[in-house]
Amino acid sequence: MTSAPTSTAAASPTTAPRRPPAKRHPLLHPAAKVVLFLVCLLPLAWYVFGAFADRLGANPAETLIRGLGDWALRLLWITLAVTPLRTWTNQPALARFRRMLGLFAFFYASLHLLAYGWLDKGLDLADILRDIGKRPFILMGFTAWMLLVPLAATSFNRAIKALGAPRWQALHKLVYAIAVVGLMHFIWMRAGKNNFAEPLVYGSILAVLLGWRAWRRLRR
Amino acid sequence: LPGVKSTVAGATVMEKLTAYKDVTSYNNFYEFGTDKSDPAENAHTLKPRPWSVVIEGECAKPGRFGLEDLLKVAPMEERVYRLRCVEGWSMVIPWVGYSLSELLKKAEPTGKAKYVEFTTLADKAQMPGVRSGVLDWPYVEGLRIDEAMHPLTLMAFGLYGEVLPNQNGAPLRLVVPWKYGFKSAKSIVKIRFVEKQPVSSWTKAAQQEYGFYSNVNPTVDHPRWSQATERRIGEDGLFAKRRPTLMFNGYEAQVGQLYAGMDLKKNY
After folding, report:
1. 3-class DSSP state of B201
2. Which of B91, B88, B85, B106 is nearest to B155 (CA)?
3. Are A94 and A21 in contact (CB under 8 A)?
4. Percent of chain B scored above 90 by pLDDT?
5. Which residue ranges run through the membrane (chain A) (predicted)?
6. Rg (alpha carbons) of chain A, rounded to whole number
7. CB-CB: which of A59, A122, A195 is closest to B241?
8. Residue at A27 is within a domain
């Protein structure tokens, strides 16, 4: 989830760059991170505005819970897209945004869980635990969030040093499992209504993102 | 579409009406798309006139009935019903229509008519959602004959004193207030009296989740969520607590005897 100094993904590309990097690359500008930070807050800003302006439809609680879940998945997918994009577009500078994107995925996943617990379950902890125990798709979602916690907790530089890069990297490979579990949560949620159109889109993109990594590994 | 206040027992719920805007913009009508906002956006392509309904099967007087005749079968009544969706939300809606039994009696069902099967329109030209494979079209629903003949079972032609908006199932739909909403078939084109229990579209799609009866029952959970509580649409904003779901959606006094001695966990 964060940019490790010696990540395998960060290894220099096997082919020479097609063109020399531009002198003052905009992606390296200090403001780039600030801009990304603000962009990542836009969905939340919209939901906060929508909640106050009554713009979240007839069932605002459902809109919020589902919307926050959607954004958690989207940001996780974008995080996973950083390394392939960096290689495909030959933009090594993209790596510096990966940690922030991953943390935002965790942030939206946490808001999604909070919205479910609060708006749907009235913060009744016993009821939430019963729900997790009883319903596989809730268990899936909760598992994905729990697995995100150690990644978020070790996302700062000192944690990388303390763990040592190889261990840190091994831990952060969990992100692949989290994406699969998160996708299953989404598929299962839609299964009862036979509505697989969106999960199919997310699934296809994830297949490309993970498939590319597998293919690259096999080729070596 | 004016209607006189209904005198049927239980036909007027004394609860705050759900806003017209919510009733007509938050719908499950998969023929127009799977999002709740899709029907309101897409249903303008539906042509509710001219319209006719075929009544056939185990009855003495089958036939095809035009909408103008259907509107005259019985006086229009206003009925304020709770609507409980299987997804865990609810509304209170003032419908306009008459008891389905008034129409069914005209066809003179025979002794073999144990169930009634409802088929709804599935026209790709008018309904974009029918191109998707979400359900096996056309949408089919069914009731036991005594359920269909119950005075609360409503053939609705309007809501809020108006002709039914397309997204709510124009020009005529069923409203069975003690069952989950999907049992109330919309835009009906065929009513068939049958001897064997019909297979509903949702039962066909997911048998463990959607049974034939699908009576509102807080003690029988959906496999993926609890049915003990519901969210009343438009009630007190975002942090309103979910309200407890009532047995038979609050119509137990009127319909409880239909299910006397039945195991409602098995017959979900």
Report:
1. helix
2. B106
3. no
4. 92
5. 27-51, 71-88, 100-118, 138-158, 170-188, 200-215
6. 19
7. A122
8. no
Q: Quote the domain boundaries for residue A200.
A: 66-219
| Cβ separation A60–B238 shorter than 8 A | yes
For residue B139, what is the DSSP state? Answer: P
Distance CA A21, CA A12 (A): 14
A200 part of a folded domain: yes
Contact in structure between A70 and A202 (CB atoms under 8 Å) = no
pTM of model > 0.80: yes
Strands (E), chain A: none
Listed as own residue / partner, the contacts of B32-38 with beta carbons closer than 8 Å and 24 or more positions apart are B32/B127, B32/B128, B32/B129, B32/B167, B33/B128, B33/B129, B34/A193, B34/A195, B34/A197, B34/B129, B34/B132, B34/B134, B36/A57, B36/A58, B36/A59, B37/A57, B38/B129
Q: Please choose, from the candidates B175, B191, B174, B53, the residue with its C-alpha nearest in 3D space to the C-alpha of residue B109.
A: B191
pLDDT tens for B70-114 read 999 999 999 999 999 999 999 999 999 999 999 999 999 999 999
Specify the number of domains making up chain A.
1
- For residue B171, pLDDT over 70 is answered with yes
- In the numeric block, which tokens belong to residue A7? 């990540």
CA torsion A166-A168-A174-A176 (nearest 10°) is -70
pLDDT digits (tens, 9 = 90+) for A146-172: 999 999 999 999 999 999 999 999 999
- The enclosing H or E element of B95 equals strand B89-99
- The answer to whether ipTM exceeds 0.85 is no
B134 with A64: Cβ contact below 8 A = no
Query: Which residues from A are below 8 Å from B205, CB to CB?
Result: 194
**Chain B residues touching A191 at Cβ < 8 A:** 206
Q: What angle do CA B120, B126, B131 make, to 5 degrees?
A: 80
Helix/strand/coil for B78:
strand
The answer to whether residue A191 is domain-embedded is: yes
Element of type H or E holding B230: strand B229-232
A216 CB near a chain B CB, below 8 Å? no
CB-based contact (8 Å) between B194 and chain A? no
Does A76 fall in a domain?
A: yes
